[in-house]
Design brief:
Length: 295
Amino acid sequence: MNHKSGFVNIIGSPNVGKSTLMNSLVGEKLSIITKKPQTTRHRILGIINRSNFQIIFSDTPGMIDPVYPMQKIMMQYIEKSLEDADIILLTTEIGKIEDISIFNYIKKKNKNVPIIILINKIDKIGSLYIENTLYDAVNYWHKLFPFSEILPISALKKMNQDLLMNKIISLLSEHPPYYPKTYLSDKSERFFVNEIIREKIFFLYKKEIPYSVEVHTKLFKIQNAFIYILSYIYVEKDSQKGILIGKKGNAINKLKFISIKSIEFFLKKKIKLKFYVKVCKNWRYDYKILKYFGY
Ligand SMILES: Nc1nc2c(ncn2[C@@H]2O[C@H](COP(=O)(O)OP(=O)(O)OP(=O)(O)O)[C@@H](O)[C@H]2O)c(=O)[nH]1
Ligand SMILES: [Mg+2]
């Protein structure tokens, strides 16, 4: 057979660079990336297919103590990822003080699956003004996970990426591919459109707006040279609707402009994009609505 395959699940606190890492490993921009925490809300698969192996990476939301139903569902994705992993890439970032309870939880849940500790963002070391930063971090992680390999990386600058890939391949078991060899992800084009628009909302709007927004693409129709896309943008309050649209529609026009560029780049096709902004009160707290949104 000589074919390896397995699930390599990326887990860690918010904002440590999990999505950046998955995109970099897969070589495609599948997950959205922003400077703000709690960007990723779903489990997103990114698949590498080669003749002799298939690696199924999972990007997951950042681990937090969940407060409202959407966050509770996000944490269920992590729980599932801990359960079905063949390898766990436990990701942290240099200089970060982590919440130990999270790691005790991972240890408790882990069923003897190899954990590789990734200390990300080591490209920042020079600018952190902390002596022995990396040395201290490795020591710290070694005490917490004495049987785990620890690898300093930079997802952004692709530092130690080959080393990581070789390590992953060496740990994978022989298995036929789990997915057809042409698959890149488990998510639909509509999902990626929603995510790209959400990324632009994180980029353009401040404070609670990005966290109060959900994007739901209702129409995705290929016709002649174009894809016609209608996306609903849901906010939680009337006041947020006003902010999203902006004076004379300035803000939403800007959002549309930058969204079109990115969606066309992703789909490699010209699109016609239309937005509807709707108020959906407290959607983050309503399990029925969350289900409708695909959570
Ligand atoms: N300097 C540096 N920045 C990085 C690196 N990796 C990620 N970042 C930055 O860290 C921020 C968060 O990156 P993400 O990939 O969105 O982090 P995440 O862990 O997926 O975040 P959540 O989805 O919110 O849990 C972004 O501004 C990235 O550009 C790295 O290796 N070096
Ligand atoms: Mg992410």
